[in-house]
Every structure is written in C-alpha cells, then in structure tokens.
C-alpha cells in the first residue's frame, strides 16, 4: 500500500468554511468518541431493570476506569504540543492512545467481573476491549474512524433494546460519517470500516455475553 503523509485538516490547501463545514464540525464535536462512549454506558446501565442509582453507579465506575488514563495522556500531549490538532489526525500519534485505552478497558473488564456487574455492562466492556484492540492493530497500517466506530457501537447496542431508537441512531451514525469525510479527517472507506467493524463486534459480543 502506498504511503503518504497524513495532513491535519488545517494544513489542507482549500479553505474549510461554509455552512456545511460548520455543520460537519458541529456533528464531530457533539458525537466525539468520549461523549458517545459515556452515552452508551449510561444507556445500557439505565436500560436494565434495576434501581436508577445502581445503574448510574455501574456506568460511572466503568467510565472512570476506562477514560481517565487516556484522557490524562491526551491532555498532557496536547499541552506539550506533541499532538498537532485536537483530533490527533496523524495516525502514528494514535498508537499510544490505543494501547493505554486497551489496558484501561481490560482493567474495567476484570473489575466488573469481580464485582458481579450486570451482564450487559460486562458485555459492553468486553466488546469495547475487542473493538479497541482491532482498531489499534488496524491503526498500525491504516487510519480507521473512531468517531464512526463509537456511534455505531451506540446504535448497535440500542437496537437490542428498541429498534426505533437504534434506527434513529444509525441515521446519526451516517451523518457523523459524512461529517468526518467532509472535514477531511477520514476517507469514506475509513468511515465505513469503523461503522462495519463496530457493528459486527458489538452484535457478536452482546449476543453471546449479554443474552
């Protein structure tokens, strides 16, 4: 495969402006991977028949374990100038985030199992681990869209509980995919790969573990 230097969006020759670009950027912010991941865990925790505070507790525990290490690394790298843009557009810069993220998710899987978390919460954690490892391996050679992967995860999981909401979120997933291509963070194939991989992984893991 031919190698080429990956450009950050602000390095492109053409100006990135206009109403459609503003809308694409808004979608990218609203449906950023951390926000969507949090929404997914909250949905699963609250969708199960249990006390609201118990569900919130499981969700918060998992979110903290999984997201704090990667977030701290991201903040440090950004402040030190090692990540040249907020999206970490350079593929090589994402490798360490995948490694730290996978280790944090693995820890959450162990903790949830030991504490006896509801099976859907454990299933989501296991699926997140599998998806993160696969995306990390792919990232060694080719950049895959994590925006697409995370929104596809949410859409796939919600479809297990309510088809109408799942369908609506898949419509959002397509909009997010368009946004990532529009802002030139990803190619159409990178977006489609993220959507497809997340859907297959989450459907498989959730079907086996949660049910």
Topology:
Elements (H helix, E strand, L loop, with lengths): L18 H12 L2 H15 L4 H28 L15 H21 L3 H21 L6 H16 L1 H20 L5 H23 L1
Could you describe the 3D structure shown?
Helix 3 packs antiparallel against helix 4 (95-115), helix 6 (146-161) runs parallel beside helix 8 (188-210) and helix 7 (163-182) runs antiparallel to helix 8 (188-210). The chain has helices at residues 19-30, 33-47, 52-79, 95-115, 119-139, 146-161, 163-182, 188-210. The protein is built from 8 helices and no strands. The longest helix has 28 residues, at 52-79. The model is unreliable at 1-5 and 7-15 (pLDDT under 50). It is mainly alpha-helical. It is globular.
Descriptive labels:
single chain; 211 residues; 8 helices; 74% helix
Strand content: under 5%
Low-confidence stretches: 1-5, 7-15
The mean pLDDT is 89
Largest sheet: none
Count of DSSP E strands?
A: 0
Shape, please?
globular
Radius of gyration over all CA atoms, rounded: 17 Å
Order of helices and strands: HHHHHHHH
**Percent of residues in helical segments?**
over 70%
Q: Which class of secondary structure composition applies to the elements?
A: mainly alpha
How far apart are the termini? Answer: 41 Å
Number of helical segments with 4 or more residues: 8
What is this entry, summarized?
With 211 residues, this protein is mostly helical.
């Amino acid at each position: 495969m031919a190698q080429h230097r990956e450009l950050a969006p602000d390095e492109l020759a053409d100006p990135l402006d206009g109403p459609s670009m503003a809308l694409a950027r808004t979608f990218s912010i609203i449906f950023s991977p951390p926000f969507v991941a949090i929404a997914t865990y909250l949905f699963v925790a609250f969708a199960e028949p249990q006390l609201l505070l118990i569900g919130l507790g499981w969700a918060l525990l998992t979110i903290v374990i999984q997201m704090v290490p990667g977030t701290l690394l991201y903040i440090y790298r950004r402040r030190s100038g090692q990540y040249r843009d907020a999206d970490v557009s350079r593929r090589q810069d994402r490798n360490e985030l995948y490694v730290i993220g996978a280790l944090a998710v693995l820890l959450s899987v162990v903790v949830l199992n030991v504490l006896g978390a509801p099976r859907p919460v454990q299933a989501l954690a296991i699926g997140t681990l599998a998806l993160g490892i696969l995306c990390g391996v792919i990232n060694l050679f080719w950049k895959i869209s994590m925006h697409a992967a995370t929104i596809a995860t949410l859409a796939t999981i919600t479809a297990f509980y309510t088809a109408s909401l799942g369908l609506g979120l898949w419509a959002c997933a397509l909009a997010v995919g368009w946004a990532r291509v529009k802002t030139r963070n990803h190619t159409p194939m990178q977006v489609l790969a993220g959507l497809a991989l997340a859907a297959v992984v989450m459907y498989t893991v959730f079907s086996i573990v949660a049910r």
